[in-house]
Write a structure and sequence with these properties.
Layout lengths: L1 E5 L6 H12 L3 E3 H10 L3 H12 L5 H12 L8 E4 L5 H13 L6 E6 L2 H10 E4 L5 E3 L18 E2 L6 H15 L2 H8 L2 E5 L4 H12 L1
Parallel strand pairs: 1-3, 1-4, 2-3, 4-8
Antiparallel strand pairs: 5-6, 5-7
Helix pairs in contact: 1-9, 2-3, 4-5, 6-7
The structure holds BIS(adenosine)-5'-pentaphosphate.
BIS(adenosine)-5'-pentaphosphate binds next to helix 1, helix 2, helix 3, helix 6 and strand 6.
């Protein structure tokens, strides 16, 4: 299975990608997670990407394509993978097509998840994460413990630097200007589906599973 989960920040791409990954035994490739790891480790990439991410803008296409090229050549991608947060520009999509052709891999199925902007802002300002195991908490739907220690692994629970109202509005603007045009790109290729992300996680999961089956 070669799948792109597409949609604005906070629509639930990561949540659904993890569930699909677990069910189908193929990896979730989250470019946001890869970049946050680089920032945490203060690599050259992390130093460049950190400031860009704090502003809610996009890391340059050549860097992102380089990261993806390396990642999809890993052995764990041999039977497919789920892209979460990539591609985000037409140039990234075109670069990805070239990579897939060079590797003799089939076309992607693309599933868009849609949520109104006002709900996205509420979800993202309320999101909290475990810095160690990545477990996701949300002040509205799944509050973390008061001591902010992850019950699963004992890691510290934190808020992402780009999950504040100002940066979220910029991320939404950037999405509309640079990423939303990809809908037409993938619609024209066929195999493009849209689901509502406003329903409970399990219902969104069922709708996606029906498309994949
Ligand atoms: P990235 O990490 O990809 O962030 P994003 O696209 O903004 O997406 P999020 O992780 O915020 O949201 P999500 O859709 O995965 O939702 P989630 O499941 O977590 O990118 C961060 C930055 O990195 C970018 O701004 C950019 O700077 C850089 N970057 C990354 N990729 C790049 C690329 N390709 N090119 C250039 N730059 C790049 O859910 C959100 C919250 O909602 C959670 O708390 C969750 O519990 C809750 N939730 C989920 N589903 C539901 C539901 N159905 N009902 C209620 N709550 C729900």
């Amino acid at each position: 299975m070669y799948l792109i989960l597409f949609g604005a920040p906070g629509v639930g791409k990561g949540t659904q990608a993890k569930l699909i990954s677990k069910k189908n035994g193929i990896p979730q490739i989250s470019t946001g997670d890869m970049l946050r790891e680089a920032v945490k480790n203060q690599t050259e990439l992390g130093k460049k990407a950190g400031e860009i991410m704090k502003r809610g803008e996009l890391v340059p296409d050549e860097i992102m394509l380089g990261l993806i090229k390396e990642r999809i050549n890993n052995q764990d991608c041999a039977n497919g993978f789920i892209l979460d947060g990539f591609p985000r520009t037409i140039a990234q999509a075109q670069g990805l097509d070239k990579l897939m052709t060079a590797l003799n891999l089939p076309a992607f199925k693309c599933i868009e998840i849609e949520v109104p902007d006002k709900d996205i802002i509420k979800r993202l300002v309320s999101r909290r994460l475990c810095e160690n195991c990545g477990s996701d908490f949300n002040l509205i739907t799944n509050p973390p413990p008061e001591n902010m220690i992850c019950p699963k692994c004992g890691g510290t629970i934190y808020q992402r630097k780009d999950d504040n109202e100002e940066t979220i509005s910029n991320r939404l603007k950037v999405y509309k200007a640079q990423t939303a045009p990809l809908k037409k790109y993938y619609r024209n290729k066929g195999d493009f589906f849209t689901v509502s992300g406003s329903k409970p996680v399990e219902e969104v999961q069922k709708e996606i599973a029906a498309i994949l089956d």
